[in-house]
């Protein structure tokens, strides 16, 4: 009985040993090689990614150096450009002032007008300068002490002086770009504030007045309702009288022109006559005189005919 049980136990142990050997064989021959293969594959991938990371770090470092070099170069060119820009503005201001003063001479104007092609280029240059200035700054004009402001004032002053003489404004009236420039800056000046830009506003309105002394320009202005309305809004009892006086002079010129040419116009109905009567007694002699002249024109005109 005992021997039978021992034999049975031995067989079971032998079966267990065989199973263990088979399992050991499977693990050593199948699993371990597979694991080794997977580990090697993972190690290879790890090395590959490590190499890529090192290369990427190298590229990043190179790009950072290149970016730093480009930034330094850009800053250098920016400073160089700003220096050149300021120099050109300063030169332009000086040259503009020279031309401005030159155009105060009637003989100089008559001589320069003879070179019509050159003066045509000058007009185009003037329009380009003023247009770019307005486009760059819009309502926020640079301070009056800035070189940009001084430069544009000199350019406007020159063309205003040119238009002060009959020969000059006759030439300018034939330049479509100059008439367009006049219209644009008169509309733009309404957005500029007092007292900071008083000189600029007066310069623009003076240029418009000088140009209006040419009948074709006056007819054009009368046909532009926005332009006339803009000038009318410059009439004020609270603003600097030197600026207001020029606006009154423009209205006086347009009203006189419409009367002389027999052009129907609604202008008399839009003029604030009560304000003009108050201006007649202004302590500013020029404003008082031009307001009186405007009232006289209205008194002798046939108002119902407008």
TrEMBL record:
Coiled coil (UniProt feature): 53-80
Keywords, in A-Z order: Coiled coil
InterPro entries the UniProt entry points to: ARM-type_fold, HSF2BP
This protein's record includes keyword Coiled coil: yes
A cellular component annotation (GO) from this entry: cytosol
Upper taxonomic lineage: Eukaryota, Metazoa, Ecdysozoa, Arthropoda, Hexapoda
Protein name stated in the entry: Uncharacterized protein
Domain of life: Eukaryota
């Amino acid at each position: 009985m005992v021997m039978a049980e021992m034999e049975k136990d031995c067989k079971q142990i032998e079966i267990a040993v065989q199973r263990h050997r088979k399992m050991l064989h499977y693990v050593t021959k199948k699993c371990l090689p597979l694991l080794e293969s997977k580990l090697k594959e993972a190690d290879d991938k790890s090395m590959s990614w490590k190499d890529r990371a090192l290369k990427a770090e190298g590229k990043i470092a190179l790009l950072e150096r290149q970016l730093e070099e480009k930034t330094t170069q850009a800053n250098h060119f920016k400073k160089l450009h700003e220096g050149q820009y300021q120099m050109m503005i300063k030169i332009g201001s000086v040259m503009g002032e020279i031309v401005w003063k030159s155009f105060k001479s009637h003989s100089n104007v008559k001589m320069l007008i003879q070179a019509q092609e050159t003066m045509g280029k000058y007009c185009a240059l003037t329009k380009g300068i003023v247009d770019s200035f307005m486009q760059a700054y819009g309502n926020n004009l640079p301070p009056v002490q800035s070189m940009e402001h001084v430069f544009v004032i000199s350019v406007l002053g020159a063309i205003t002086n040119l238009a002060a003489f009959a020969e000059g404004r006759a030439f300018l009236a034939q330049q479509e770009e100059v008439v367009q420039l006049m219209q644009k800056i008169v509309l733009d000046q309404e957005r500029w504030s007092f007292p900071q830009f008083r000189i600029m506003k007066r310069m623009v309105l003076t240029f418009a007045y000088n140009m209006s002394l040419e009948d074709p320009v006056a007819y054009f202005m009368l046909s532009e309702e926005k332009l006339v309305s803009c000038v009318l809004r410059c009439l004020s009892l609270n603003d600097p009288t030197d600026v207001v006086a020029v606006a009154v002079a423009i209205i006086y010129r347009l009203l006189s022109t419409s009367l002389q040419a027999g052009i129907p116009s609604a202008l008399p109905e839009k003029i604030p006559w009560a304000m003009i009567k108050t201006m007649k007694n202004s302590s500013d002699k020029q404003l008082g005189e031009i307001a009186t002249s405007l009232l006289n024109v209205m008194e002798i005109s046939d108002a119902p005919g407008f």
